[in-house]
Amino acid sequence: QVQLVESGGGLVQAGGSLRLSCAASGRTFSNYAMGWFRQAPEKEREFVAAISWSGGSTYYADSVKGRFTISRDNAKNTVYLQMYTLKPEDTAVYYCAADLYGNRRSTLIVPIGYDYWGQGTQVTVSS
């Protein structure tokens, strides 16, 4: 089992920044690819960003490319999502997820590709 706990969400004005963190425990963190997804009210969960288990590859949704950056610190068992130039349409609950030895884009950009999920953290961007 892997336990994932997100933090760092909150209320921010459009154009502002936030950094989300996801702390993992329970298994060898460095063996897991990590992803961020988000879900707005009455919408499906959508891919935001992912980083391979090796950290050598990162993937982003087109809607956040150039504004968000995913990174990981294996020494701290934590993955981060740095978000800049936030827009009201970024408002959602953000979830982190873990996939054992994941490194293929095709599996990392879909929710079914992940084995474990956190409970989510709310991000609200006001206009």
Which features would summarize this protein structure in a list?
mainly beta, 7-stranded mixed sheet, 127 residues
Description:
It is built from 1 helix and 11 strands; from the N terminus they run βββββββββαββ. The chain starts with a strand and ends with a strand. It is mainly beta and 127 residues long. Strands 2, 4, 5, 6, 9, 10 and 11 form a 7-stranded mixed sheet that branches. Strands 1-3-8-7 form a 4-stranded antiparallel sheet, with no helix packed on it. Strand 5 and strand 6 form a beta hairpin.
Short description:
The protein is 3% helix and 50% strand. With 127 residues, it is mainly beta.
Mean pLDDT over the residues: 95
Termini separation: 40 Å
Work out the strand percent: over 45%
Overall geometry? globular
Radius of gyration: 13 Å
Topology:
Elements: E1 3-7, E2 10-13, E3 18-25, E4 32-39, E5 46-51, E6 58-60, E7 68-73, E8 78-83, E9 92-100, H1 105-108, E10 116-117, E11 121-126
Parallel strand pairs: 2-11
Antiparallel strand pairs: 1-3, 3-8, 4-5, 4-9, 5-6, 7-8, 9-10, 9-11
